[in-house]
## 1
Amino acid sequence: MKALQRNHLKMKFLSAAENVGVARLTVAAMAGQIDFNLSEIEEIKVAVSEAVSNAVLHGYAGEQGYIEVEVIAEDGVLRVIVTDHGRGIDDLARARQPSFSTDPERMGLGFSFMESFMDQLEVSSVPGQGTRVEMVKRPGGGVGGHGQHD
Amino acid sequence: MPLVYERFGDILVLRPQGDLDLGAVEEFRRVAERALDENKCRKLLINLKGVTFIDSSGLGVILGRYKRISLLGGQMAFTQVPLKVKPILELSGLLKIIPFYDTEKKALERM
């Protein structure tokens, strides 16, 4: 199947835990339009899951608000932008440290997974206004990039 | 996410199914805690065969049970870790503290 030159998708949904899977599967379907192998698609799913879970758990912290996920597939590169308009992150450097978590039942690996599994990660956050996470991945460039193409 | 459990002597076996993410962790925690309370087991074996996806939320709920079991001086292990789940477990460091066995039979014999 010939790969699309460019595809662009935007979705907006309530900050419900159930929607984490919806976002992950939608982005995976877009990633499937680019030449990613199966393990790379798994990595993208984990990264999206982490970004959206952070928005649900920390951005809105139990309150309801909207999360936007924008996916751009262009020139064989996948770009995913996850935005919330929640409370923002006070200390971004600290939040991005591995094993930093505000909850004993969590591992604090969200940002580590996003960093490990995507080629680029940019996080910007304004306390009281929200957080924007932008991630980029190219086929063959990441952790699973040396795997078999299925 | 359906969570089936079964008891073999002093080992409780949990068999989560489907995607272990933020949408599933509350149910996992509730069922696992109840099963541990009711069965008074000090050993916990998690059979991951039916798990189709895991992220840090899923790892966190597993870590929470590991902390409980460890506090009681018990043991925990994984079995039948799917190929696509294993890299996430490895990267998280959980496989350094929690052993895994190829089959449930082997795990039940050695735990």
Note: Chain B has a mean pLDDT of 94.
## 2
Amino acid sequence: MEKFTTLTSRAIPLPIENIDTDQIIPARFLKAISKAGFGENLFRDWRYKDGKENADFVLNNTTYQGKILVAGDNFGCGSSREHAAWALTDYGFKVIVSSYFADIFKGNALNNGLLPVQVSPEVLKEMLSVIKANPQTNVIVNLEEQYIAVEGTGIKESFEIDAYKKMCLMNGYDDIDFLVSNKDKIEAFEASRTI
Amino acid sequence: MGKTLFDKVWDSHVVHQVENGPQILYIDKHLIHEVTSPQAFNELEERNIPLFRKEQIVATADHNVPTKDQHLPIQDLLSKKQVEMLTENCDKHGVTLYGLGHPYQGIVHVMAPELGITQPGMTMVCGDSHTSTHGAFGTIAFGIGTSQVAQVFASQCLLLSKPKSMRITVNGKLKKGVLPKDVILYIIAQLGTNSGTGYFVEYAGDVFENMTMEGRMTVCNMSIEMGARGGMIAPDETTFNYVKGREFAPKGEDFNKKVSYWKTLPTDADATFDKEYTFDAADIAPMVTYGTNPGMGIKITERIPSKDDVSFEKSLEYMGLQKGEKLLGKQINYVFIGSCTNSRIEDFRIAAEYIKGKQKAANVNALIVPGSQQVAQQIKEEGIQAVFEDAGFEMRQSGCSACLGMNEDKIPAGEYCVSTSNRNFEGRQGQGARTILASPLVAAATAIAGKIVDVTEEIKELELV
């Protein structure tokens, strides 16, 4: 897994609530057997209408660029498909900002080096309006110090992250290595079970 | 202080507490299917890690399989390759597979309970969010991503932080025509689509105590639709009687020993929850959804609420519906009875009881998709298949089908489908398809009338529900 420490990037606003994983990557694109190439179909049915690019959708609007997606409340609800995280990273996103994330998506994102940053609803609203007013604005995400800030504004907020997951992201470690290294404990647990 | 059902099962599976971090949780059963497992097998092979406990894994093909002519080669080449990859991976790694054509094949959350693989007190995972279904047995069961599928392959464990606890109590007597699906759609409509995020839910109260296992599975199945990773119901005599005698259930003295243990699992009287909600059964009515998440539900006789909110309006625009509109009387051209929520024998019995002697409306395409080969067999044996066919319904073979539209079973753009599945997301049942979630009874009544009707008025003379 790629390491993550800090990121300064412009951001793309997507102020829709309850964006589910069927919107992020529709089921008909889940037939692949590798992790590659899902970015092409990210938000497929919002990006394309009747086989053509939908000019109204933010990813087709070149005014907005960047590796940070700023989305409405409850991002990533629905299916457990990790393909949603693969589609977002393959497209080039490194950070998703929202006021709330669905559990399974959050775990999937973290397992792929994609950082979900949960901010307060007020900060989310402010960020969205600043980015819309000035699409050139940079957003700074500092994982080590656990804060997110918007350059040239007073917007700055700290965010929560599990200490273990933070360590994994900063070092590029993943859970498999850790679990396999605990095999002795797992076998001892199995041997100790009575029912 | 007392412990909850969830605490008891969770705590008995903790292998290790990582300092200032998550816990290593042991997983008893791991269910896999063709869509979310290939990348996990690849991951292990790339790292040269063997499967740790292959005998605790069971595989089936369900999401991406045709529901017609399952004995013939799959037409869609990508689907064919994905299903073949599952067979190849299971062969290579020695995993039990109930693939297409096997008498045990079926939707993973229908197949495992009916075979007795699902048992109280277990921890179970699957790369599918509706794994919450198995919580109906007093099991900690939840959906995982593909990275986690690989972790369980490698270690039979996951790294997790213990979720918070929520109890939802529903007491009283359900009105005639109100099914378990209505109960869970009602709860989600009341609490909202993200109310359960970060929680594991326990459903308590006499409404759930009096429910069949099939009904409990329908309820627990949709826990994820309010954001909860899982939902549980305390195991009781109904649970033990359901498990007893099934293919992989413990037998004889072993079974009795297990039952003694399972009886210790229900929540202690002095246990506390992080959050509690209570509802009155008398307030629950047959439900339908009008929007693009399962929290957007109303009683079948109610009007769509008015809300000045961009996401809400976007949702209604997609559905082609207006604020204040009634769904009652709305013409419907597609009906789907199936999915891991409602494709068990009881669901089809109820639908058939209503349909018996009637004909589907001319405008309706009605699809019946049993949850498993075993359910399909039972439908035939009980004469239910003939009821559906005589009424003009189309019988298919088992699979996830039009619930997620991965195979050919899709609803055309712009069309409404009254569906017994679990998600009404945009495009879920096909690009542009408009899903209205409902119970099997409401779906059956819709198919007969060709429009949404108040089922409580329709069933006064029926004995069944």
Note: Chain A touches chain B through 53 residues (CB under 8 Å).
## 3
Amino acid sequence: MRPETLTSLLAARAAKQQVALVSNLETGDQTLVFRDRADGALKLDDEALDATRDALRDDKSGRLRRDDAPLFVQVFNPPKRMIIVGAVHIAQPLVTLAQTSGYEVVIVDPRGAFATRDRFPGVTLSEDWPDDALNTLGVDNRTAVVTLTHDPKLDDPALHVALRSEAFYIGALGSRKTHAGRVERLTEAGYSEDEIGQIHAPVGLAINAKSPAEIAISIMAQVTQVLHGA
Amino acid sequence: MSETGIDLQALDHDDVVEKAADWRQSGKNVAIATVVTTWGSSPRPVGSQLAIDEDGNMIGSVSGGCIEGAVVHEAREVMADGKPRLLDFGVSNEMAWEVGLACGGKVEVWVERLD
């Protein structure tokens, strides 16, 4: 790898930009492909550029099957992100599991007393109202949103934004009865059955979880399952 | 530490490129190995990387430790002549002296030098 390619790659990673490194496995020539530009010694045609950007979107490194050159696309995407609404007890083990699984975690809770730094070291805390917070954070297809407050006044605004975003996972804590009420409210607010159907509720895989840590495990397992399309 | 001198603690790490760049910055020869193809069950997915410096220090992984030793060996040649190499690793046979994957998978690993 040429020094200028390495420098540019490190800068993109530091800035949390999506970038792919395309290599010709025979010659070693390389090019960095960003969402809006490409830069490097290896010249790529439109077909290869499109395939590379598909790989970026799908977060999937791999060989490009071509007759003329053995090309490999290495995707360098920023970490996946989990936005947790509600700095409640379950959030503590969930933060640990999500971080260990490679997620950047943001906790949103406008109730100042809940989201204290002591309880959540190393986590970005937002005290904005959840819809504002999610709009500011920008919910993309590498983001999971989990609401944990049980309180419609906090959970619903987050869901309003999440349901019309590209979030790959949306989960909401609460019993079936709680969820039935939620569905009613979201329907009244103008959300379609398909949109509302994106919500995983009751949240988490059915493993009879009882303690906050067990519930966090069931949530993390479900997020993982959805991420990998299982 | 295992017999091959592989620090298993260091084998799973996301900042492989950053670490490799640090080594290069400090004046060492460095090679990066990347899993480019897998068939069947393989311990690490496509895109997994291992960085190696001239002293044999490693970070990241391209398998669960099965082929790292052989990759390091090849990486030294890549560091020496600067030519990238595409390495093939198949299923290991307990009765043979070849390096391979006990899990029964196959992987291709590409090794390049940081210039």
Note: Chain A has two domains: 3-76, 80-227.
